[in-house]
Amino acid sequence: MDTALLDLIPIGICWCAPDGAVLRGNRRAAELWGTVPADVRLFDAEGTLIPPEMNPLLVTLCTGRPVRDRRITIERADGNRATVLITCESLFDEAGRVSGSVNFFQDITPLVKAERTLQSREQYLYDLLEALPAAVYTTDAAGKITYYNEAAVDLAGRRPEIGEDLRSIARPARQSEPALTMAMREKRPIRAADEIVERADGTCVPVLSNPTPLFDAQDNLIGAVDMLIDVTERNEADEDLRVLLCELNHRVKNTLASVQAIANQTLRRSRGPGEFVTSFSGRVQALSRAHALLTETTWRGAEIAALIRDQVLPGGSTDNRVHCSGPSLTLEPQAALHVALVLHELATNARRYGALSVPGGRLSVNWVLRSAGERALLLHWQESGGPRVTVPAAPGFGTTLIEQSLHAHGGEACIRYAANGVICEIRLPLPHPNRRQAVRSCGAPRTEPGWGTADTSGTKLTGVLHGRRILIIEDEPVVSMDVVASLQEAGCIVIGPAGTVAEAWRLIESAVFDAALLDANLSGEPVDALAAALTARNTPFAFVTGYGREGLPAAFGRAPVLSKPFSPQQLIETAGALLPRPARLAALPSGRINSR
Q: Taking residues 365-384, what's their average pLDDT?
């Protein structure tokens, strides 16, 4: 064949003698092997150096067997490399002996570089998928798993099988059809479908499924890729936020109800606008200071010493006439608020009329923690050196507030009016440190029709409440005082109030009453059992709550609700709606009435 014609062929061609000497070759072969073929080194596809005796050209000459499409790398003397597909065919003489060989070299260096680039990209993608915190699966057109990353192993709690149906791992949480099935049927991506992954240990994990169908060049469905995102922490955070907002709503409404009740009760006992403003402002400020202390501890409680300091010495002032001593003790939030009001009433009386109203007066506040038997705070308040004390003709609002605030927690106060100063002995039961505070779940908002406060529009309440016995179960002392006063003015006989679950049980089991107003939560304890007991005895009742209807016990979602804060009229209407209506007078017949 003409040499010029051989040089036009894009692949390398050479002929070798039986001893391996190159007899003839084209220009492309010379370019691949270099000017000194003996100085080249050969490497196999794995990059291992090929010994000279295993050179494919020599193997063919020695054995007579062809070598076809073998991938080798040629490293020339100048250090440059080329990857080729080599084919060696033996030549034989008339006697059948090897007389030489013809060798073909196809340069595939660009193809190898492209393969390596593609492999590098594929490896990068696989590394990326392995680094993702979400579970990633690929499937064939039948939904059978063809790949998954390590996050999928963690999510499923086991190593899925290649060929396993992905829909056996993730099942729909709300929609009837699996998201993967829907995506491949509709040939479109599905985003954030709620599904459940049941782990090997039986626990269920909520996930968001994001399947995307895959197609080939002819737009034929060949499978799908699905990303499952574990949303357990997000759901828990959403639930925590919902409960937090529910609790915040409850506390704000309870506080507003307390402020409203303080205003009502203060107004009832004030002799004029000036006295009302002074008394009301002082009590609201006492609540505000107690809230500030609780905020500092994120509502975990308040130190008794800090409460005494803020209520007895407001504004952080110092007063050598006041002596305080006692152990470190943290009160739970609701108890702290009520003790703050008690201390405010005692301190206000001491500053206006008692020992702190004169320079020579003295106040001693001592407290101890009793741990034997009932765990309780015992606080001793003693004034001395003040003006001569006179016993009041009737207990005022402050005294009643003190008694009711402590009674709400099963405690008590004993006030003695000694000649040289007021003495107050306080006992407040405390929960044991290992007692877990009941967690109030607000439940899912309900949207069923017919769940509302009983309709009392147009109801004639005159005479309905008079003489009727109403049980009050409420743990906010000032609110219960206001409720009692309003119902008594309407002619009711009030049973209670009960501020604790234990006291409520005692009254339900022993007292006679026609209806009940039930706080939906008593110091963190649920009232489901109390509501069930009232239902069992066919006693109508309404919930009085700051939580809203979604915070009611689940079994009593249809019960009437009086939402805090409320007006006296709303209270009367709710109580009246619980009781049977008096029979209406029969209508007189129409026509003239003759009289004699």
A: 93
